[in-house]
Amino acid sequence: MADNIESIQLGMASDLLGHAADTLADPKATREELRYVTARLTESLREVHRIADSRGDRLSEFDQPDLDDSDDDNDPQLPAGAFG
Q1: Given this model, what pLDDT does residue 77 score?
Q2: Which of 7 and 83 is assigned the larger pLDDT?
Q3: Contact 40/21 with Cβ under 8 angstroms?
Q4: Are 10 and 48 in contact (CB under 8 A)?
Q5: Diameter of the chain by CA atoms?
Q6: Local structure of 78: helix, strand or coil
Q7: Which one has a higher pLDDT value, 73 or 31?
Q8: Mean pLDDT of 31-54
Q9: CA nearest to 2, candidates 50, 36, 40
Q10: CA quadruple 12, 18, 20, 22: dihedral sign
Q11: Alpha helices (runs of H) in the chain, residue ranges in sequence order
Q12: What is the pLDDT of residue 70?
């Protein structure tokens, strides 16, 4: 369920980027329009940042070395000159 919500939020962020680009490219865009799109971009960035943090936390669980198993005697060694 969380992946589905994240997918929706990321899709909305992508759509918002297009809308923001159109607004910024419009020389007749009003101050109110620019403030509105800036507020929406801020909200979207906050959501995307939350998604990135969440995914980073989940990924870091797999990246952490197990410090209890630091027995160097069991590490496979490459033969001398293996890369030379």
Answers
A1: 55
A2: 7
A3: no
A4: yes
A5: 70
A6: coil
A7: 31
A8: 93
A9: 50
A10: negative
A11: 2-25, 31-63
A12: 53
Q: Which amino acid is at 48?
A: V
Structure tokens at 4: 């589905």
Q: How far apart are CA 25 and CA 19, in angstroms?
A: 10
Express each pLDDT in 48-58 by its tens digit.
998 888 877 66
Is residue 82 over pLDDT 60? no
Whether residue 12 contacts residue 44, with contact meaning beta carbons closer than 8 Å, is answered with yes
- CB-based contact 5:43 (threshold 8 Å): no
Cβ 29 vs Cβ 23: under 8 Å: yes
Location of structure tokens 């159109």: 22
Secondary structure (3-state) at 66 = coil
pLDDT of residue 84: 46
| CA–CA distance, 48 with 40 (Å, rounded to integer) | 12
In whole angstroms, what separates CA 65 from the centre of its chain?
23
